[in-house]
Amino acid sequence: MSAILYLIRHCETKGNRVKCFQGRIDTDISEAGAVQLEHLGRRFAEVPLTAVRTSPLLRAYRTAEAVSALHGLTPQIDERLIEICGGIWEGKPWADLPALDPEQSRRWVKEPWNFCAEGGEPMRSVYDRMREAILDAGEAFDGGCAALVSHGCAVRNGLCFAMGLPPEGLNEVPWCDNTAVCCLEVEHGRVRVLYANDSSHLPNPPSAAEKSSWWRA
Question: Domain segments of the chain: what residues?
């Protein structure tokens, strides 16, 4: 048998709108984010979910609630799905980061696998825990399907692993938009990407993430 896992990025937040590095800052969702969740919930209404696991941060948990709502499920907290800790980057405008921390800003773009802001989490650690979260869910929900709700950087690392790439392959992996869905099949510890970064449930794509290039490069 196999498990189908839907890896989902949270909806738009107030932090997304003001263009700051959020990391572990527990920002609430925006008005646009609430609308995105209505569409996301409808998308998953007919999906026979076994469970929903989520990062503990509010923006992810509220997204998980929208996915769970029509299934009578309670989202389960999985700390491995939390966003990267950005250390001194957290709460800073993206536009200020190249001057604040030029070396780590260069790494974020050129070699993200070596990124680690002062006081923060190494990118390689994010890759490792997302790999564990995916493989664990694949085993736990074998024969069924589940949703995993996470964050932009964390989802990118999870998708990197699912594509069969090491952390050094991160720049080959696209960033996912707010509420975008990646569908993974896990069978006996082997992962296959069925599709990635799908936001076809949104009536007016692209989402806020797609419209903003400041955090990509």
Answer: 3-87+124-211
**Planar angle of CA 106, 13, 85, nearest 5 degrees:** 45
Q: How far apart are CA 137 and CA 189, in angstroms?
A: 10
At 142-195, the pLDDT tens digits run 999 999 999 999 999 999 999 999 999 999 999 999 999 999 999 999 999 999
Which sign does the torsion angle of CA 193, 198, 200, 202 carry? positive
Q: What is the pLDDT of residue 142?
A: 97
Q: Which residue has the tokens 């680690």?
A: 116
The pTM assigned to this predicted structure is 0.94
- Spatial strand order of the sheet with 145-150 comes to 76-77, 51-54, 145-150, 3-9, 181-187, 190-198
Residues 6+ apart with CB under 8 A from 26: 57, 58, 59
CATH superfamily assigned to domain 3-87+124-211: Phosphoglycerate mutase-like (3.40.50.1240)
Q: How far apart are CA 193 and CA 155, in angstroms?
A: 13
Q: Residue written as tokens 């825990």?
A: 129
